[in-house]
Every structure is written in structure tokens, then in C-alpha cells.
């Protein structure tokens, strides 16, 4: 028999949103997150960066509270909110003491369903995001991952940076971001996930109080296409003392058992300080500062196995040979 904490309860509210709940019987805190099935791969070249921009904008004024009031109301009860944008989804989450889950869900619902998207806030946030973009470009570790996507998925939305370009970010208007919001932020395109020490009926009742609303899709989004991967060596010269190196290769079809196998394989290979590559390349040979491997799991396509290394230029060939040796022993 499964433990209560292993069971995921699912309910579709009359308004259309799917709610997932997993009981955490030994915790006093609770977390909730809204996952929206839209990421940078759904964007066109004209609205590049809109997913990320909208993520920022949903923390601004809503129909009921100012951005400052939202922050004060959640932090007054010891909670916090955050969000993130990926290439395939956007999510917003809140963590509070279990007894305050109501205020957490109320704030999440207001952010998702009632943003004002004011032009004054858009203009202000564009400056913030442009500074964030500059920060990515100044960070070699962040930049090389975007550079990998650009070259591995050329001429495809997966290859574009999540944050967008200076031109696309500077060109956001109330109408353009509202059109994007209306296209993807509808209830059938969202999931609400909750974990805490509640009974299923209890938490579904609380969730329905705030999330039982209907938002219909007002227009069709961009169609997704399988990207054509490009293989090759893509150097980028920068004035740095170290070399940032990524090696990517085709992995498995995106299925549950394959995703689990890819995660296990990369963890053994380079997932921690006890991994084979870390022990051989850093601990035994002293050839690099940082080395890791991880699966790049994307929908509608094969996964990719990625190796990321931070090392001195003179060590690059030696590390490559050690990697090939370890890989051939699997």
C-alpha cells in the first residue's frame, strides 16, 4: 500500500484548471505553484522574451493590490513568492506556513488572473530586464549555456535566449503583452500544484475558492516544430583566464523510463562530487575547477546529454580524453 505522501490527487475544477495535490504529513509549511505550458520555444522572433517579461509583470499591480502590497501581505505571514521561465513552461510559486495557505493561493490567483499590465510598469520593467540581459552576457557560465542552445538548435525558437533581445524587450507594449497573455494564460493551459499537510477534500475546497475561474483561449499560439540539430565545434573567443566548455550529444526519446535512465546515467557520470568525472578529472588529476553532466529533457524531441566543464585551456584535450575513456566504460 502506498504511503499518503506518495499519492498524487488530481481534480479538474469546474472553471477548467487542473489541481494536483500531494500530502506532506510531517511538514508545517505548504507550497503551491501555478505551471503554465508556455516557454520561450512558443515565441516568435517578434515576441522573443515575452514569456520572461510576462513572468516579471505578474508581480506588478493587480486589480486588487499594488505590487508593494502583494509583497507585504505574503511576507507579513512569513511566506515568499518567486517564479521562473524555461524554454517550455513558466511557473509561479508560493511557500507559507500551512495555516496561511489561503493567503498564498489568493495572491497566486490574483497574479495569474488579474494583472493590470500597465504601460508605466512595462516601461520600468524593460529597464530591469535589459540590466538582467547584460548580467547574463557578463557571466561566462550563463552565456555559454545560451550559446550552446543557439548553435545546437539554429533557426528554431529553442535556440533563442529565454530573456529575448534588446530590440524585443524594448518594444513591449501593453497591447502586445496582453495579446500574448490572452493566448497562453487560459485555464486549460495551466496546472495548480499544492503540497502540505492537508486532506485532499480540504485543500481542493480552498483551491476552488480562489482558482475556480474560467479564462478561455482568445487566439491560437505559434505552432511548434521539431528542431533540426546542428553538430559541430563552435568556439567563441572572450577575454577570460579560463575555458568554459560544453559538450552535448543526442540522447533518448522523451518518455518517462528514458528520462529516468538519462538522469541516472548523467548523475553517475558527473552529477556530484562522488561522480566518476569529478573524481577522475578534478580530484585525481586536478585538471579543472568544475565539471558536471546533466540531461537536457525537452518535450516533442530527443533529450540531449550535456557535459559542462570549467578549466584552463591547456587541460582541455586531456579532459576530453578522460571523458571519452569514462564514457566507453559504461
Description:
This protein is α+β, with helices and mostly antiparallel strands and 330 residues long. It folds into 2 domains: 9-211, Cytochrome Bc1 Complex, Chain A, domain 1, CATH 3.30.830; 242-329, Metalloenzyme, LuxS/M16 peptidase-like (Cytochrome Bc1 Complex, Chain A, domain 1). The mean pLDDT is 90. The strands form 2 sheets. Strands 1-2-6-3-5-4 form a 6-stranded mixed sheet, covered by helices on one side. A 3-stranded antiparallel sheet has the order 7-9-8, with helices on both faces. The chain has 11 helices and 9 strands. Helix 3 (101-113) packs parallel to helix 8 and helix 10 packs antiparallel against helix 11 (316-328). Strand 4 and strand 5 form a beta hairpin.
Q: The biggest beta sheet, please?
A: 6 strands, mixed
Q: Over the alpha carbons, how many angstroms does the gyration radius reach?
A: 22 Å
* Order of helix and strand elements from N to C terminus: EEEHHEEHHHHHEHEHHEEH
Distance between the termini: 35 Å
Give the structural class: alpha+beta
Q: Output the strand order for the largest sheet.
A: 1-2-6-3-5-4
> Strand-residue fraction?
15-25%
**What is the C-level CATH assignment of the largest domain?**
Alpha Beta
CATH architecture of the largest domain: 2-Layer Sandwich
CATH superfamily of the largest domain: Metalloenzyme, LuxS/M16 peptidase-like
CATH level-3 fold name of the largest domain: Cytochrome Bc1 Complex, Chain A, domain 1
Runs in which pLDDT lies below 50 for 5 or more consecutive residues are: none
By DSSP, the count of extended strands is: 9
Enumerate how many helices there are, as a single number.
11
Q: Taking all residues together, what is the mean pLDDT?
A: 90
Categorize the overall geometry: globular
Number of domains: 2
Helix content: 25-40%
